Amino acid sequence: MNESLQTSATSTGPALTLDDLFRRTVARQPDEIALTDPPNKQRVTGQPPVQLTFAQADQAVSAIAAQFTEAGIPIGSVIAMQMPNTVEFAVTALGALRAGLVVALLPQLWRQSDLTNALNRVGARAIVGTARIEIVDHGDIALNAAVEAFSIRHVFGFGDNLPEGMTPLEIVTGGMDGWVPPAVSDARRPAIVTFDVTPEGVRAIPRSHLQLISGGLAIFLESGLPQGAKLLGTMAPASFAAFTSQVVTWLLSGGSLTLHHPADLNVLDMQIAESNCDTLIAPALLAQRLAQGDLLAQTSTISHVIGLWRTPDRVASSDDWQQPSAFTDVYLFGEAGLFAARRQADGSPAPILPGPFGAPRTSAGAKPIGEVIITPKATLALRGAMVPVSAYRIPRGEMLSEAPQPDYVDTGYAAQVDRARGTLAITAPPVGVVGVGGYRFVAQELDDWAKRLNAGAMLTALPDQLNGFRLAGRASDNRRAREALGELGLNPLMVEAFRERSS
Fold it and tell me: Which fold has domain 2-357?
């Protein structure tokens, strides 16, 4: 099965969609567990946790797809989603794809300003959210953003006490056997849209089913995950890396996916100990922190750990992995792409070589999934089946010359090759972009927002061991600064940069 999937991803054979992968597993093992909610879902969203078999999940996917179709959303339209890491997210995303729609993933911390910009940028026809996530009223946030996005015609939501104007959705596990999708999906057309922040600003990055499967294969093959893997995913579902590392690898393996809404470490400890999962998917620094607590060594069921690095320039200096489980480093470069490298026998990071990556170790002559390139500017670039080159191209009207544009995406990360050993070193993050956890900001925009507060206000990025950077703000009245930024609908990371600090 792996070889046929890779053939599809490299566009030399039949083109599979994500729904094709899902349906194959439904037909093969309808009564096996497919999706499991976080045990603390009641606290996060107010809804009880659920567990679905593949047959139940298939019914739920069709029910969501039917509701979108009956609402009159045209095939090929963009439907935005801002949701927690729960079963509803996976079912809704697959339901939208089954209905022939394109899913735009919205980060959970985005508020009205960012949401409105993103919805208008992609011309979204609908948005799906939840009544609340933790203590934040996401129902009102979705409605307010929809008011300012002229293309929005429908606002859907999960949960109780939805605000007026929000159409309710729910998980339905029966009665959909006779429903037929409105059109046959094309694996080469856009399936997912994510949003990247480059020095030039926010970009919408569409990807086809083939590109998504290629990204999933890069992780799946390098980490050596087995068929039927039992995955525990802890990533917030709003980026290419999170979607491929969790949803796509789940579909590729045909196993089960247990979800953790980040980040309650006590709940995560319990899930690791009790869920019987064999694979943990988590931010790499979180995985290393768990390893220091010896929890993974005590939990014999975890045999694979997939660690995602939002700061790939720090992999080389990270601690060696001294656990019985295999550890795979996944290097993330915003929304441009990723590659994976399984750690060596001594637990140290594997050397990275320029050139092709992603071919299975056991398949001689298999085609690579992607390629790592060093540009003339001494930066790292990616090309290959997963890389959306056209989304990063400079518009013709903005080009300084008529020279042909490259067939790769420059990630902006400074990199160099050791001439003696031929290995690659990633030395610094992109200039002009600040990464705070899973969120990126244009450095100049931070200064521009601070200037809108009052004279002498400052908003800057400081180095942070866990997140790459953290935001820190200073104003003559921090409380009023927080209120002003909140009223403007800005990301809480920017708002809370002006929180009061004790001595």
Answer: Rossmann fold (3.40.50)
